[in-house]
Amino acid sequence: MWAFEKKAGIKGYKRIAGVDEAGRGPLAGPVVSAAVILPDYFPVKGIADSKKLTPNKRVSLYKDIYRHPVAVGIGIVDPLEIDRINILQASLLSMYMAVEKLIPKPDFILIDGTFRIASDIPQETIKQGDSLSISIAAASIIAKVTRDRIMEKYDDEYPDFGFVKHKGYPTKKHKEAIARLGCCPIHRKKFKGVREHLRGYNPC
Q1: Same domain, yes or no: 162 and 68
Q2: Distance between CA atoms of 149 and 167, rounded to whole angstroms?
Q3: What is the pLDDT of residues 154-170, one digit of tens each?
């Protein structure tokens, strides 16, 4: 899991940030990205792609990562902006925002996926990077837990949709709620599964 970080270190880079996002697929809520710079000595065990971890394990590792980072940055793009610029561009924007919030600034970036971000900092994209780079995996955990907590707060505002359970993803229960109630203000109006139901409840 340290191979990409070590390769960048051999090239002379000292502050290597892993970047990942959470929330490209949901019908509601923001897309959230995290950027994480880990120290050379990082004592936390069990870091892995957030999708492969149980919710309890993610939260435990989230706390551990925050105890030992060089830096953590978070970028959040809301549903209105997602609808305006599309989900890919919103994801890349949230990644850029996360990197910009890092203090100290990284001198190299490892990005999950195949798309670069609009930064002058040297960067490398890694397909399935959250399974191959410990820095990206750490970022995936921070992004996922951060987004889940946002959606849990939205559940208090819009309890009829069950956001606390599905976090805005297109589950059967979520789609049934949209069909029955229409959409609420945090739904992504241009997404299939939402745009057909722009009525009722709390109109978008």
Answers
A1: no
A2: 9
A3: 999 999 999 999 999 99
